[in-house]
Amino acid sequence: MLLLLLWLLSLQPQAVHAQQTGLGVDLSLIDGVELTPANIFNYRLENRGQQSQNVLVRGRVYYRQSALNFTYEYHISLQPGVTQVSRDMISAPVWNFSSPGLKELFQQYNKLPQGTYEYCVSVYPPGTSPEYTPGDEPQSCVYQTVDDLFLINLLSPDNDAKIYEYNPMLSWVVNYPFASELTYRLRVAELKTGQNPQNAITRNNAMYQDNNVMSTSAVYPVTARPLQKWQPYVWTVDAYYKGILLGGAEVWKFTIIDDSEYMAADVEQSYYEFDRHNGDTRINAYGSLCLKYISELNADTLNVSIVDNDGSFTAYKDKPLPVKLGDNRIKIELEQQVSLKHEGKYTAIVLHGQNKKFIIPFTYYNPLFLKNKQ
Predict the structure, then answer these.
(1) d(CA 185, CA 111)
(2) How does pLDDT run across 307-366, given as a tens digit for each residue?
(3) Interval 208-248: pLDDT, tens
(4) CB 295 within 8 A of CB 324
(5) What is the average pLDDT score of the chain?
(6) Are 120 and 59 in contact (CB under 8 A)?
(7) Cβ–Cβ < 8 Å for 223, 208
(8) Bridge partners of residue 254, in order along the sequence
(9) Would you indicate the residue range of the signal peptide (predicted)?
(10) Which residues contact 138 (CB under 8 A, 6 or more apart)?
(11) Over 70: is that where the pLDDT of 74 sits?
(12) Using CA atoms, how far apart are residues 235 and 224, in angstroms rounded to an integer?
């Protein structure tokens, strides 16, 4: 308790000193705006005193969880009231960058790296030395996230493309005016069941990754882990300027298929009839599982589960299917609701409330990999 009291007392002189400076900073004009050399000084400084003050102004930009940062400082004479600062009013600001690449990126190309940064401006009263204790001065901060998602556009393979090459050419374009000075990181990863492309590229180990691609295209190398047929893959590209991340492209998906197996199938498929089969025939499911059930009850329910060859539940587990008296045509849409492998072997287990059990083996065909019969 004594230590807490001493600490509180130690803060009182600082609070009084800050209040006595009569200075203030307003960064509202650039809140939410990506900084450039042209707008970084667009803010207001306030002098609440009765006389002009020659103050020291310091700005700092630093990235979270990164060593990237830069600072500047300059002196300016503030008249009583509010001063709208602009670049033309600043004479010879002193800059300090964490790396030459960051300096070139910001001052020559008017760009900041990808990520979230904090921009703070502090005002020091007259007579303040450069060693002035941080925290005594009036200060204001804003936060901004840079995410140039659409300055890199993937070209080929198209998103959701079905390709035949096991070593495809991956290509992209960039919209940076200094594109010739960039390097790229190319990543290819598997898309697993239940994942979206962004999750897959973020969480899964890369099938292939090259951190130093010098051009805007690359061939999936024969030395990398081989790509497999029917397995969906995702890929993306990130751009770097002298080791500094500028931004990334969207994540696209492609799947390798075999033209000989890009099979033709009937658009319409027959309904499996429970009374005629009981696990003795494997049926085909083209995107959906079609079942025909004759009920003798006014209100009835079936429960369906789908398992793979190991007996593990892959999709539904005791999914209720309400049925009515008489002829019921049940169509379970698998393509939109679950993720099954093309040409995968599965079993539907249908349970009836009266202890009846139907075993229905089926082969699943993804409609994206099928073509209609001519």
Answers:
(1) 19
(2) 887 777 777 788 888 888 888 888 888 865 556 777 788 888 888 866 678 888 888 887
(3) 999 999 999 999 999 999 999 889 999 999 999 999 999 89
(4) yes
(5) 83
(6) yes
(7) no
(8) 161, 233
(9) 1-18
(10) 18, 21, 23, 24, 25, 122, 123
(11) yes
(12) 14
Task: Report the DSSP pairing between strands 283-286 and 357-365.
Answer: parallel
Cβ count near 68 (within 10 Å): 21
Neighbour order of strands in the sheet with 69-78: 94-97, 69-78, 53-63, 115-124, 139-146
Residue type, 290: C
Q: Give the predicted TM-score (pTM) of the model.
A: 0.63
Instruction: Give dist(CA 91, CA 76) in Å, integer.
Output: 9
CB 331 within 8 A of CB 288: yes
- Structure letter (DSSP) for residue 355: S
pLDDT-based confidence at residue 282 (cuts at 50, 70, 90)? confident
Is pLDDT above 70 for 136? no
Domains, in order of start, for the chain: 19-145 (2.60.40), 150-260 (2.60.40.10), 264-372 (2.60.40.3110)
Of 148, 175, 176, 138, whose CA–CA distance to 34 is shortest? 148
Tell me the range of 48-52, 258-262, 352-356 where mean pLDDT is highest.
48-52
Q: How far apart are CA 220 and CA 216, in angstroms?
A: 13
Q: Measured between alpha carbons, how far is 359 from 307 in angstroms, rounded to an integer?
A: 11
Identify the three-state secondary structure at position 131: coil
Partner residues linked to 85 by β-bridges: none
